[in-house]
Write a structure and sequence with these properties.
- By secondary structure, this protein is α+β, with helices and mostly antiparallel strands.
- It contains 11 helices and 13 strands.
- It folds into 2 domains: 152 residues, PurM-like, N-terminal domain (60s Ribosomal Protein L30, Chain: A, 2-Layer Sandwich); 176 residues, Alpha-Beta Complex (Phosphoribosyl-aminoimidazole Synthetase, Chain A, domain 2).
- The radius of gyration is 19 Å and the shape is globular.
- Bound molecules: cobalt (II) ion (3 copies).
- One cobalt (II) ion (CO) binds next to helix 7.
Length: 344
């Protein structure tokens, strides 16, 4: 274990360090439109990764994700960053096969710290069945780590944001509250031991939930990361042209998160997510403020948000029970009724 407190070297942590959804869409909007007939999915509808057709039987899925330290232990940080980056391939229904490291690290930091970060990433990639074949490093005062991941799938196997249809149920496979937990740990409001459930959740691969969803068949999928549950749910609702009705009480929460939110321990990113979404969604007046703060909490390596036919929901939940016990049915899909997200 190294003596360096990695999280002290960074301002924001994990997926909370992403540019806000408002700022990002402004920047992207200004870019010229591209066209390539083999690019099946680009960034138009906020999907988790791009999809490029190799031939009629094979598509390539590509994504990149990296962020500043979420925990002080270098190996654990590497595991979490890699699980998070691999997740975007799973969210598209694909299988990761190849990855490249992106590492920004202070040149003066002990060599074993950098090595432990990369070892954590390597082990997670191995669990995913992907090989890390190279990468790039930058001497940078604020550490950042993640992967560029390539996955493969058959064309018909791809899941997008755009497939949710009225009558679907919504399943979320991991508990919420990683942003609040990481912030609380930085403020010494959580002990190392109390942070463990959040760490276990963040470093868990979405592979197993993806495999279960392949078995049952689903209509749409995304993973829940920096833009929060409501932010990513809105992307799905917008792309699908439907309304998602989400029950505020239904998602599982990490331990201590409800109490911390009531105390006002909320990361900056949650306010940014709320500000962006506030006038785009409807939140029932009876829902307590601390709970909406949790629904806006930026997640690092969060779960899959799955939309699937109502009659398949029990089968999926049955499969997920053994894999990720915090999976919950959190809402349903309705005909578009003037707002993309309704929190009840
Ligand atoms: Co994603
Ligand atoms: Co997304
Ligand atoms: Co991503």
């Amino acid at each position: 274990m190294s003596e360096i407190k990695l999280t002290r070297l960074s301002g924001s942590a994990g997926c909370a360090a992403k540019l806000g959804p408002g700022a990002l869409s402004e920047i992207v909007r200004g870019l010229p439109k591209q066209h390539d007939e083999n690019l099946l999915i680009g960034f138009d509808l906020s999907d988790d990764a791009c999809v490029y057709k190799i031939n009629d039987g094979l598509v390539m899925i590509q994504t990149v994700d990296f962020f500043p330290p979420v925990v002080d232990d270098a190996y654990t940080y590497g595991q979490i960053a890699a699980a998070n980056a691999l997740s975007d391939v799973y969210a598209m229904g694909g299988t990761p096969c190849l990855a490249l490291n992106l590492l920004c690290i202070p040149g003066k930091i002990a060599q074993d710290v950098a090595q432990d970060i990369l070892k954590g990433g390597l082990d997670k990639a191995a669990e995913a069945g992907a090989v890390i074949a190279g990468g790039h490093t930058i001497d940078d005062n604020e550490p950042k780590y993640g992967l560029c991941v390539t996955g493969i799938a058959k064309p018909g196997e791809i899941w997008t944001n755009a497939g949710a249809v009225p009558g679907d149920m919504l399943v979320l496979t991991k508990p919420l509250g990683t942003g609040i937990s990481i912030t609380a740990k930085k403020l010494d409001k959580l002990t190392d031991e109390e942070l463990l459930p959040a760490i276990e959740s963040m470093r868990a691969l979405n592979k197993y939930a993806r495999d279960a969803a392949v078995k049952t068949g689903i209509n749409a999928c995304t993973d829940v990361t920096g833009f929060s549950l409501l932010g990513h749910a809105r992307e799905m609702a917008f792309a699908s042209g439907v309304t998602l009705e989400i029950s505020a009480e239904k998602p599982a929460l990490l331990p201590h998160v409800a109490a911390l939110a009531k105390e006002g321990i909320i990361p900056q990113g949650a306010y940014r997510n709320r500000k962006y979404l506030e006038d785009k969604i409807i939140i029932g007046e009876h829902i307590p403020a601390y709970l909406t703060d949790i629904l806006f909490d930026p997640q690092t390596s969060g779960g899959l948000l799955i939309s699937l036919p109502g009659e398949k929901a029990d089968m999926l939940m049955g499969l997920l029970e053994k894999i990720t016990p915090h999976a919950r049915i959190i809402g349903r899909v309705l005909e578009f009724n003037g707002t993309h997200i309704k929190v009840v």
